[in-house]
Please model this.
Amino acid sequence: MKTSRRKFLSSAVLAGGASALMPLKSCYSENNKGTGYPDYTKLDLARDQPVLKRELFTTPVIIDKLELLRDRENFICRVRSKDGAEGVSIGHPFLGNHGYPMFERSLHRYFIDQDARDLDTMVFNAVEKNIKKQGIPLCIQIATIEFAILDMLGNIAGVPVGKLIGGIHHSEISIYLGTQIWEMRNLEPEESLELLAKDVEETSARAVKLRAGSGDNLGVNNEIVPGRTEKLCKMAREKFGDEMVMMIDGNGTYSPDEAIRLGRFLEEMNFHFYEEPVPWDWYEEQARVGNALSIALAGGDVEFGMHAFRWLIAHDAFDVLMPDTFYFGGMIRSMRVARMAEVAGKVISPHMSGGGLGFLYMLHMVSSCSNAGKYHEFKMFETRDANGTIIPIQSKTEPFSSKDGNVSVPTGSGLGVHIDPAYIKTHKVIYG
Amino acid sequence: MKTSRRKFLSSAVLAGGASALMPLKSCYSENNKGTGYPDYTKLDLARDQPVLKRELFTTPVIIDKLELLRDRENFICRVRSKDGAEGVSIGHPFLGNHGYPMFERSLHRYFIDQDARDLDTMVFNAVEKNIKKQGIPLCIQIATIEFAILDMLGNIAGVPVGKLIGGIHHSEISIYLGTQIWEMRNLEPEESLELLAKDVEETSARAVKLRAGSGDNLGVNNEIVPGRTEKLCKMAREKFGDEMVMMIDGNGTYSPDEAIRLGRFLEEMNFHFYEEPVPWDWYEEQARVGNALSIALAGGDVEFGMHAFRWLIAHDAFDVLMPDTFYFGGMIRSMRVARMAEVAGKVISPHMSGGGLGFLYMLHMVSSCSNAGKYHEFKMFETRDANGTIIPIQSKTEPFSSKDGNVSVPTGSGLGVHIDPAYIKTHKVIYG
Model:
């Protein structure tokens, strides 16, 4: 069953050589021998490999300044090395304003005056030494800092961020359309699909994601209108044809039994993957659903725990792992999930929020994953920040656009973009 | 094995009648029938019972004002009803300053203009509708709001908080000494125990908690000095005698194998419970350790997920459940854990941070739990706030003190304390 769940997901993995593909269960023999629990040896080995490619830097890169800038609800992180190299990241477009005091009170100390080549360790400590402050708001601040440091390191080495954390495995990313979340649930199905069709036309995307149920994350089977989910799926298949790749996201609507029932329907409808049918932290239930179905299961978007991903992978709960580069605390940690997924024959497809520079971080992350899924979440090139201002960025190389549903990863150094200095100047340094 | 793990924990539970004591496994038959997973029916029923006793209020209590006050790093929540009743809580003594922007941006809306008699629902929504902001900093803000509203409701009904959420099952709480965390690990064992002996003398406590390992929450068996943990335990038993009840907290130091090895030693040393041997989110490993040992396992102090506690209880990972009233988002949610624990024959013993009004919230919470453990964490009557200022409070009834290791629960209305208005006045309203 696992094999059939995997085979549609990533040709890259299937071509990736036997060792990376060894089924996890073949190594369930050492650590937990005789205990009835999985052996995690191979997952742990994969997770714990160094991520940042230190060998690209021959001398220390001491972090001399690490600043948090603010303009009303929006935040920017700027980092400067002793030698004058700079990096800049834009914070999360609607959640950066929730946990920003943690930048000063619990995070700055783990980065300032350190050698940026030790970024793996700095990120690890920022997460693991702050467990009493744990959660998504903390991870968002860590990610914002990490993105700025990666931008600086890329600028120093003259390479894009993907090359720093895993090498460039993909120069173009195939997208699936993940916008219209509210509309996909609350309008008449005809209207929902009409809006989606406009995005398809604009991007030539070959994959779209629908939304199932009410998305209330309660696991009690609330539908906005009874029967709407199946109706929407059927109409979408009819409207977009058999060639369109379709996925669907339950956002935690269902109980395990109902999730399995709907999953069988989605199998019949030839859906590509089935995301988060049960609430995000119903791990055991998710494993039950995953093991009962042949359709690929996807999830992990609001997860911030490394150990949780390890469990979800080992127990075959998901086939497509979806850490959010912000919510999960950055690209280095997300890469560790990708590597665990890889040795288990699974793929990665990061979640992204709409707005800000989400799509940019997603592109770099995916470019560096050998086991990236076939299609990746995309919410258009909309870059409104937390104040509703469009962030004025330009790719250092070519303009951002989607051709035949593919978006090129910026090849310029660091994050590969030029941000209008006048925009940054509207923000004042509040710490660092 | 489970029976022997339980029997020392709570005479109250053992006297509590057969129905409350029915072993959980006897009901593993309905919901998940034939799936190999536990049946959670009884746990879910217990969890979902109303907590706030609405029947104490015959007319609506509309929340007219809900304010966040700030003096530098310290926060206070003040609530006022349309009829002029007031409640006040003091925020967390060192973490309230991490997530306070969430009070305004994501929480205030769930409480303002609502009928405070619907507090169960308001708290539920504040947690469940904010999953993208989830974590301890969010829960701390929710708890601070809830404590203020409970204070107000208690003032209206003329009853202490415990009566609002479960009735008064205990008017005196037996404490265990949980201070000296750093000292318990980093000094020579002789010196560590000398400091503990001073606290014992001051409080006449009959129970003390030691600390095992490095407490780094990494699960890789780091000890400050090799062999120190066993040495400390032996010396403590010798110093305090066989009558002293002793528990120990690993703070996530150990791998499962090492946790089990140390657990067997603790069984020989007749320890009362063994807290958090493996990292907090190693659920499966915790269950493995719990099921391998006869000593009672305790934990859950940095947990903020209801579903996680449900799993941990059903899988017999812990015998003593330790939600922190702040980190877990308040007393109502903690009561839901207590009730799940009760139907599984387990006990509750809330975690508390030192400083602030932690001990006060702990006392009220424990007073209202029929299945409270025998001993509860206590870090002295120290009430320094986030600025290092001693919070000037007086019990409305009798002074706070420990007699023979017992502390009386305040019997005055609400939280049962009078806070010097001059202290509150040093704080300015920043929202609400």
Notes: Chain A touches chain B at residues 32, 35, 37, 95, 97-102, 105-106, 128, 131-138, 216-218, 279-285, 288, 302, 304-305, 307-308, 311, 327 (CB under 8 Å). The longest strand of chain A covers residues 63-71. The radius of gyration of chain A is 21 Å.
